[in-house]
Amino acid sequence: xxxxxxxHGLAANFRNWNRPLNFLHSLHQNKRRxxxxxxxxxxxxxxxxxxxxVEPKVYMRDTISNIYKILKYSTWESAETQLKQLPIRWDSxxxxxxxxxxxxxxxxxxxxxxxxxxxxxxxxxxxxxxxxDIFGEAGRVSSMKYLFQQMQEKGLKIDAVTYTSILHxxxxxxxxxxxxETWEEMRGKGCFPTVVxxxxxxxxxxxxxxxxxxxxxxxxxxxxxxxxxxxxYTVLMEYLFGAGKYEExxxxxxxxxxxxxxxxxxxxxxxxxxxxxxxxxxxxxxILQYMKENHLVLRYPIFLLxxxxxxxxxxxxxxxxQVHPHISVECIDNERVVEYKRNDFEDPSSLGRGLVWVxxxxxxxxxxxxxxxxxxxxxxxxxxxxxxxxxxxxCGHCRVGGALLAFKYSVKTGIKLExxxxxxxxxxxxxxxxxxxxxxxVVEMTSTGHSLGVYLASLLIYxxxxxRRPTCAAKIFDSLPDxxxxxxxxxxxxxxxxxxxxxxxxxxxxxxxxxxxxxxSLGTYCVLVAGLEKLGRVSNAETYRKxxxxxxxxxxxxxxxxMEEKICDLLFARDVVx
Length: 578
Fold this sequence. Notes:
This is PROP1-like PPR domain-containing protein. Keywords: Repeat. By secondary structure, the chain is mostly helical. Among the domains are: 228-334, Serine Threonine Protein Phosphatase 5, Tetratricopeptide repeat, CATH 1.25.40; 348-450, Serine Threonine Protein Phosphatase 5, Tetratricopeptide repeat, CATH 1.25.40; 484-577, no CATH class. The chain contains 32 helices and no strands.
């Protein structure tokens, strides 16, 4: 009955709109007019009201962006001062959003610890998980595990998001067993996985050829009532394409559309790349047809890869052109002539630079290595930007040999790399346990005028100590400028010798520090006490424990703490000797 009345009302309105134009004119004629006022104000107000000064509204996104710029472009000393002056209330959401902007890792960690000491603020599962994710992405697995341990000790809620992040980064660091243990721990704690958790774990298993386990996890997800999303289907198809089961993969490709889950741009790019590497063109044609119907495009490197694959197989590229009308295929062969336009075509360095850029963009890194070797033999010099890019790309693909070749080329030809290139190479060597090469990198980096900084230098020395490489750690300490030989780096070196089991050398370094007038911090005493106790020097440890307590009492009366001491306490104010 209500529906009928509603339809009648629509019909009545429709009849009104269909009346002749005279009806509309009558509406204007019958409009009530306001009679003119007889009295007019002839004098202005004596004190006219002034408009209020309204302050412009500050949006949260602008605040987060401002904090990110402070952390990225300022030293920590300056950043800390600016953060204290900000008129904002620190809460979990704000801190989490700042961390998600991904400021430099060391700044993010310093900010994380600084804001944790602000009154009325406490870190929760969200801020811990985001910081944990930053460490994982940077390959700092030990730091990630330390944060996770802190979450457990503080009794914070650990949900599927945290577990998923941990198992993902463990698998990225090739610790598959650790990822499996994390999954089992999550299930043992009664934490129910989400579709993201299932998908991430399936990818870990399929990527490491644990097909039966991955299939069982997929079936378990379906039985639990969780529907696969686009990324889940992509993981399945990626494995099937890699295993050469193209028909099964394309069957999933069509069935997921029947289930109203459309493959997205990322999925299509991944699948086309897999097919190109296998040299199979007929699956590419079907995926391109879907992309044409749904207005999706390939990323430019994948587009070039698909174009080369089709040409190598003798297939027409008409469909590829239709999907990518914005790319002129005819100009691809000549794009480098436009992009790397040279004044002198006979200049061998310019020609070599253009060729290296082409190969680097296509990720043909073996060809880049061969070309660099040839250029190095001919003593042809390239520029710093290009060589730094080669180091970054090789490190991003875990090609330590290619990165070191670019470094040696830069040393031989006198090229000064960017600071970030040196740091990327050092990080890559640490993850590959090639510690002897790190000393050469740091010495060269220092000689070119770049600085590790107190924080990174202390971390590097400490990391070499964990690897039982005291000689390398001592060389790096000696290469530091005098202003960076402070309490933090000295403490790191003391910890190195304690970790190597040589307490006397550790105490010798500590005494040398004191002779230079450098006072120990809380972190220094923590290293001394823990190291001496571990090596059975209990009486010495007790002496330093008393000094530590005395320092803690005096800390309440100190107005300010130098930055070197803050860094030292941040890194070593716990038992770090392993």
